[in-house]
């Protein structure tokens, strides 16, 4: 009887570990102690175990979701899934680069795959606390990162043969910011590499010539105590060390092999950095934001200028990095590794007939040189000229 009960408990635990629902892989949440989300709740991750030849390999994926750079926006965020584990879905859908299907994710399907939930509002890099006697906010992104790594090391990460740190959007920025720390946390014989998807945020003037994104990041760094966790080579070199939140200023100091996946017309940056609402009070860009086909020739010229600035910021990485990889396409999108239709599927975006999954795999396993830059819009038919909706 006791044996039967024990077996039942084991089966129930396995059932809660992951659930297959209509072809979807839903993975259960694990809470971590010794760190706090914005509201003081415990941070979380989702782990789906690897198998077969991938059992000793690990892929960690930072969740994205923007930032909060002032007290009010952080208080608001603390009441959402991006500020508190209390509001997170307990089961997370794994697809794209996290899929366990070899036909959908040929290089990483059988790895241990981890989704790091995002609840600090500072790209896993802050270390501060706000307490005015009435409200408390924990800006502990750096502590969250360290706590999750410490929790995963004895679960097999500490014996990894291969490891890839990735992330999308604000999580893609986290991959830049934490890549060297990830390398240092693992054994010296582990093959460690990093990937950023839509995380190469530019220090770019908006259409009114204001540095909207720069001001936003400066306030973010100040509020969340991020500066001390930025790249020391960068902060000691620049007169304004807060600018080291932008990857373009510290990319050349990074030693760990890195892959940059970005569109040259990143929709988030288009909507919030190049043409933020504050710079388009009359709504002249509204139709262009909704559909690229509605952009005027003058607006397209500005977008082409943004693409040119991104390629210029990446030029030394393209030329000088011997271990780096790159896939810069011309789709109007944001984040392409987490969605199956853009990661690896029939008709997914490609450059020179190479899909994103194929390019990343070629780079990670050193099968081929993988630095691909698309021709300018509108030449790429694989994008289908569909603009993503970004709030």
From TrEMBL:
Signal found in the keyword field: yes
Coiled-coil intervals: none
Keywords of the record: Cell wall, Cell wall biogenesis/degradation, Hydrolase, Secreted, Signal
Alphabetized Pfam families for the sequence: PAE
Superkingdom of this protein's organism: Eukaryota
Subcellular location: Secreted, Cell wall
Signal peptide (from-to): 1-23
EC number per UniProt: 3.1.1.-
Function: Hydrolyzes acetyl esters in homogalacturonan regions of pectin. In type I primary cell wall, galacturonic acid residues of pectin can be acetylated at the O-2 and O-3 positions. Decreasing the degree of acetylation of pectin gels in vitro alters their physical properties.
Stated name of the protein: Pectin acetylesterase
């Amino acid at each position: 009887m006791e044996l039967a009960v024990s077996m039942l408990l084991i089966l129930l635990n396995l059932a809660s570990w992951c659930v297959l629902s209509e072809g979807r892989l839903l993975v259960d949440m694990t809470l971590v102690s010794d760190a706090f989300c914005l509201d003081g709740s415990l941070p979380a991750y989702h782990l789906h175990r690897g198998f077969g030849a991938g059992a000793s390999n690990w892929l960690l994926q930072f969740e994205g979701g923007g930032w909060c750079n002032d007290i009010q926006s952080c208080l608001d965020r603390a009441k959402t899934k991006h500020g508190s584990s209390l509001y997170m879905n307990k089961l997370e859908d794994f697809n794209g680069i996290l899929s366990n299907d070899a036909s959908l994710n040929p290089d990483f399907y059988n790895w241990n795959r981890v989704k790091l939930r995002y609840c600090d509002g500072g790209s896993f890099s802050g270390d501060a606390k706000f307490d005015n006697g009435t409200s408390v906010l924990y800006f502990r992104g750096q502590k969250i990162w360290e706590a999750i790594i410490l929790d995963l090391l004895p679960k097999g990460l500490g014996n990894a043969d291969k490891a890839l740190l990735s992330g999308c959007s604000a999580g893609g920025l986290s991959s830049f910011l934490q890549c060297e720390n990830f390398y240092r946390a693992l054994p010296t014989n582990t093959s460690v590499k990093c990937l950023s998807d839509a995380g190469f945020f530019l220090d770019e003037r908006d259409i009114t010539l204001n540095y909207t994104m720069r001001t936003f990041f400066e306030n973010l760094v100040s509020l969340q105590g991020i500066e001390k966790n930025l790249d020391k080579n960068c902060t000691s070199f620049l007169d304004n060390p807060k600018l080291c939140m932008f990857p373009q200023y510290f990319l050349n100091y990074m030693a760990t092999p890195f892959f940059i996946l970005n569109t040259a017309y990143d929709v988030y940056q288009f909507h919030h950095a190049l043409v933020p609402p504050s710079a388009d009070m009359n709504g002249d860009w509204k139709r262009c934001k909704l559909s690229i086909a509605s952009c005027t020739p003058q607006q397209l010229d500005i977008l082409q200028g943004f693409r040119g600035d991104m390629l210029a910021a990446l030029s030394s990485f393209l030329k000088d990095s011997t271990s780096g990889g790159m896939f810069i396409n011309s789709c109007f999108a944001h984040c392409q590794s987490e969605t199956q239709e853009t990661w690896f599927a029939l008709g997914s975006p490609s450059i020179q007939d190479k899909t994103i999954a194929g390019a990343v795999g070629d780079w990670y396993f050193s099968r081929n040189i993988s630095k691909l830059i698309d021709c300018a819009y509108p030449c790429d038919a694989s994008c289908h000229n569909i603009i993503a909706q970004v709030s």
